[in-house]
Write a structure and sequence with these properties.
The chain has 7 helices and 11 strands. By secondary structure, it is an alpha+beta fold. It has a 3-stranded antiparallel sheet with strand order 1-7-6, covered by helices on one side. The chain has a 3-stranded antiparallel sheet with strand order 8-2-9, with no helix packed on it. A 3-stranded antiparallel sheet has the order 3-5-4. The radius of gyration is 20 Å and the shape is flat.
Amino acid sequence: MANQLLFYKSAVPLSSEEHRDFSVRTDGTYGFADTVNSVPIVAAEFRPAASDCAIVFAGEGDTVFPVVILGLQESENLYVDADKSWNGRYVPAFVRRYPFVFATGEDENSFTLCIDTEYEGLNSDNEGERLFDSRGERSSYLEGILGFAKDYQAQFVRTQTFCKRLSELELLEPMQAQYRTPAGDTGRLNGFSAVNREKLKALSGETIEQMLQTDELELLFVHLQSLSNLQPLAERVETKSEQLN
């Protein structure tokens, strides 16, 4: 959970000069995320992600951020099948935006759209969606990507504010989750935090009202409910093992 860029290998700023003749070919597969056992999500994703993922919090202090757990072991993603398709109900935006990502400027207020040059779908053979037209102007595809990235960044900032409040209220605590696979193997998942229910109940009425008005209280309830998806995650272990064998 420590590597913020995860499956990005060589993200460089997009340039109409450097990438004018490049296109992006997408085939709807997610092999690039096959070895990632968690990815960040933003507040707007809590409800759809909770349909079949466990939402927890990674990091400490100012770096706390919500993530969805995708695997029980390091370098394991149980939501990516052997054919590289995604078997979950919801694909996190962090995964969907690949191979694009925003880089923050030195003033932390400016952003540059980057692309992972190691992405296998990036090509100069005119396969897929062009990034720029013959005049060097952004294509409609790239404009759509830029809009998506801007929306994601806005939600990222909102989520940072949400996490800051959780830290200030000291609602988070380290958590361990025990699981059992269909084969009878047991294990323990740790290295993340969850909301302490008793501390949540002890909040003042004024604080509860504030969090209700900002929808933060709903986010906490969704997070707590999503933890019930940890055991179903363990049941995916046998399915993926059968696919690989």
